[in-house]
Amino acid sequence: MARPGVRAEVQRVALDMLHNEILPLALATHKRLLSDANVPAGAQLGATKLAYDQTLGADDGKAEKEPAEMTYAELQDSIERLKRQQDAIADQARNVTPLEQPDGDVFG
């Protein structure tokens, strides 16, 4: 497929099929896995994890690229952001105030 027009049309048809045919079937199957009491617990757990990861965790790293896909500037920005996160976590660990110990021993 060296011709860009042909490649674009194939991608358009594939995406159309995925969105209009395959995704509805996958969602129906997913719903059945979660609602059918005869489905093994492992399959239900996998379906639940998939639902949580794709909905609740959808914003986690949504715009995140793989390092191999990043430009030099993006890599540097990512490194700086990770260093700031690391410093914030280290500061939280250093700023722990010990709990006050009650007078006496454990039994009274």
Biggest β-sheet: count, sense, barrel? Answer: none
Number of helices: 3
Order of helices and strands: HHH
**Overall number of structural domains:** 2
Radius of gyration: 25 Å
Helix content: 55-70%
Shape: flat
Taken as a percent bin, the fraction of beta residues is under 5%
Give structural attributes.
108 residues; mainly alpha; 3 helices; 65% helix
Protein architecture, described:
With 108 residues, the chain is mainly alpha-helical. The chain has two domains: 1-60, no CATH class; 64-95. 65% of the residues lie in helices and 0% in strands. The protein contains three helices and no strands. 0% of the residues are buried.
Question: What's the quick description here?
Answer:
The chain has 108 residues and is mainly α. Helices cover 65% and strands 0% of the residues.
SSE inventory with pairings:
Blueprint (H helix, E strand, L loop, with lengths): L3 H32 L5 H15 L16 H23 L14
